[in-house]
Amino acid sequence: MNNSSFKLNDNTSIPAIGFGVFQIPNDGSTYASVLKALEIGYRHIDTAVAYFNESEVGKAIQDSGISRDDIWITSKMWLQDYAYEDAKKAIDLSLKKLQTGYIDLYLIHQPYGKVDEAWKAMEEAKSEGKIRSIGVSNMTPKIWRKWENSFTIMPAVNQVEFNPYFQQKELRKIMSENNVTLEAWAPLGQGNQELLNEPILKNLAKKYAKNVGQIILRFEYQEGIIVFPKTVHSERMISNLNIFDFALTSDEMDSIRMLDKNKGMHDPDASGTKEMLLNAFDVHADDK
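RESULT FIELD:
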């Protein structure tokens, strides 16, 4: 099964499709899902401290029998750890939970608070070989402009909400100036029925003998975007990977670009977002 990759601005190659574990519980479900995803052919697993399932991801990778070097692991630091000393400890704790000597990609999960201090700790961890690539998440154009002067090393990626209804055109212009790759969370619109029933997408699905989800993922792949379609169902895991045996024409790409409403479900610029996220939970409650 073809699992294509993109070259990041630090010259590492990242698999174009990842398996995301957001909202999969740490009751054995994450372990089972990751093991199944690896068996099916995924080689890119996306987790985060705030998903509370890094340990199960690490155990599944250990037990998969697949060489660590053949698997790309992404995790993300939660904003309660952004103070410099806390950030250094957070990176080491992620390494410990994931049972690995290095993390392929580590992200600033939410861009509020002491982002500059967290970034400094991440740049140092990269130079020490603990992290291969570093990046950010949920940065809008406004937030990017606020922090860009803090980057001695340019982020390799910015992981944001993206799907045909929210194509992040302004942000992508800024990203392309710095050769920053966009990663999509909610690449299928989190099951938005209006999106999944768009006539243009249904017609293309019929033409290529694919499902609408595969048409959307193929569009995103051709746009140069890394995707994490989330599912715990084996059949869906397989179909989400099966997008490399056809290509949309430039006219078809343009027709999907026309679906953009330039509005997502989550607005990182909204007032109160920082406070809400800071008080959301304690990611170290179980570590004490």
